[in-house]
Amino acid sequence: MPEIDSVAALKEAQRQFQPLLGARLSEQEATTVRRTVLICSSTGCRASDSQEIAANLQRLIAERGLETQIQVTITGCFGFCEQGPIVEVLPDDVFYVRVKPTDAQEIFEQHLLNNQPVERLLYTDPTTGKKIATQHEIPFYKLQKRIVLRNCGRINPEDIREYIAVGGYQALAKALTEMTPEQVIDEIKRSGLRGRGGAGFPTGQKWQFARAYPGEEKFIVCNADEGDPGAFMNRSVMEGDAHSVIEGMAIAGYAIGAKRGYVYIRAEYPLAVERLRLAIGQARELGLLGQNILGSGFDFDIDIRLGAGAFVCGEETALLNSIEGERGEPRNKPPFPAQSGLWGQPTNVNNVGTLANVPAILMNGAEWFSAVGTATSKGTKEFALAGKINNVGLIEVPMGTTLRQIIYDIGGGVRGGGTFKAVQTGGPSGGCIPAQFLDTPIDYESLRAIGSMMGSGGMIVMNDRDCMVNIARFYLEFTVDESCGRCLPCRIGNKRMYEILTRITEGKGSEEDLIELRELAETIIDTSLCGLGQTAPNPVLSTMKYFWDEYEAHVKEKRCPAGVCAKLVRYQIDPAKCIGCTACARVCPVGAISGAVKQTHVIDQNVCIKCGACMTKCKFAAISKS
Fold it and tell me: What is the mean pLDDT of each run of 10 residues along the chain (626 residues)?
């Protein structure tokens, strides 16, 4: 591809590249391709053989010589991960779910050749039992508004021409030719965009600080580390639309006066890293990164730094240490990175979601963005919806959408017919929110007020079969393992909290343990060096606040109400149901069950190891646990 060396050339390239999108544009524009088949090629769908689906369709199309009439292209994540692999046929607007490689033949012959959609592959609404053919009619998508994810599932992430065809790099061109750096910063400030990494600091203000501080060199850093359990927002954006982040970084570089940027991304994201490298290379080839971008005199380039998966490196100063080749542990603040960051120079650190918003804001205007969301939390937010939820997936909703809307309208309710118990937002740094707050709007202040936080966007749903004490213990185990160990409150305090929670879940806890647990949590929040330690007690404090009865049951009654904590579980045989078949006694590995044939059996609680083999083997539902 020839280098694009001017804004006029970029606009001409956009016009020329639009036919590549085929039927994804209006039928009047789609003159070269009659149909386009979009196939999800994110990590999740690739794990379910979506690449083989694409290969099978391409082979069938080639065998009939229909390459000029039917285009097969890979895309990023459609979001509806529960239903992947996903295949969408356009302009027919037919949305297929849970497609297998063997389904390619039927899609080709019945739909692509004979215009008859394959009904069995359409989404089935679980409430009505009806088949839904189009994406926008599926309840999962109805309340969503995609800004960060605007191109995921729409374009081929491995072809820069498709990004340019949908307006990519036009925002960068606008910034370089029509706006001063100060005007760019003012536009971002007026939009109300706040950091999507968790803390929610105003982005424009952050840029303004970095621009104001003098330095021999300045840097833009994209934090793509994403270490929260269950979170995959950043990965999906990098896999499906890396160019939006690259463009956002270049605009940020222009705004603060930086000529170099770094993307810090964990090595456990091989596909995201591969597509990011490809995107950077393509942008350089077209002159959209490097020297004299679009003939403006502005120089900016990007390098990649791979992280080793340390959760603490999601904290911006620990991340900067890691980029410099040092141990990934936080620095004392102040000075903040805007004043002294990479190699002591002014540095701006933004999350993937923050940067992906920037091109859309510059192209559509601050007022367009600020019209979405709430008074203090503007725009949209992406969440990785997981746990005991029917519709697992990646969503993007306007700020102010309630938890109830997300869990029931988008998420389809609690999986398996269980009762909703809590939702964890913010990962290990957030809190567990009970049912009484389901109508809480999702924004920075509202979540903080009820003991949780936005975080990077993990959202894990729990039902009545989850033990909240054990959930708190799980998150403490994670933060203890991930602590860098630099400060004593985090290194020792969190470990002591974990030990107390372990005692409680094993039936060895005391009421004094509960007092000590709360005091430790409050001390750690006040005295830890960085955000990891300061927020690590949140799952403990929120579960103690809203699920105190479960803590008391574990301590006073030596009982786990949810039946999760193995050492507190009691397996019992119902005399009314037991027929004395001896099946349970024969599978018990420790001989804890006694009883003659055709007589009621009994479990010796002092011998039972709580393995559950007896309950699994019993055909008469005579064994229960409590």
Answer: 87 90 68 84 95 97 94 96 95 96 97 96 91 95 96 96 96 96 98 89 97 96 88 93 98 98 95 97 96 95 94 90 93 93 96 97 97 96 94 96 96 89 88 94 91 85 94 93 88 94 94 94 92 89 95 93 88 91 93 91 89 91 87
125-154 burial string, b = 16+ CB within 10 Å, else e?
Answer: eeeeeeebbebeebbbbeebebbbbbbbbb
DSSP E strands, 566-625: 571-573, 593-594, 602-603, 623-625
| Nearest alpha carbon to residue 466 among 561, 337, 584, 332 | 561
Query: What is the DSSP-derived secondary structure letter of residue 402?
Result: B
> How far apart are the C-alpha atoms of 224 and 231, rounded to whole Å?
12
CB 296 within 8 A of CB 177: yes
Prediction pTM value: 0.92
How far is it, in rounded angstroms, from Cα 151 to Cα 77?
Answer: 9
Nearest Cα residue to 403 out of 171, 387, 492, 35: 387
| Pair type for strands 420-425 and 431-434 | antiparallel
Cα-based angle 65, 67, 69 (whole degrees, multiple of 5): 105
Could you tell me if residue 514 is left (phi over 0), alpha (psi between -120 and 50 degrees) or otherwise beta?
Answer: alpha
Asked if 357 and 147 touch (Cβ cutoff 8 Å), the reply is yes
Q: What is the DSSP string of 118-144?
A: -GGGBEE-TTT--EE-SGGGSHHHHT-
Phi, psi of 152 (to 5 degrees): -70, 125
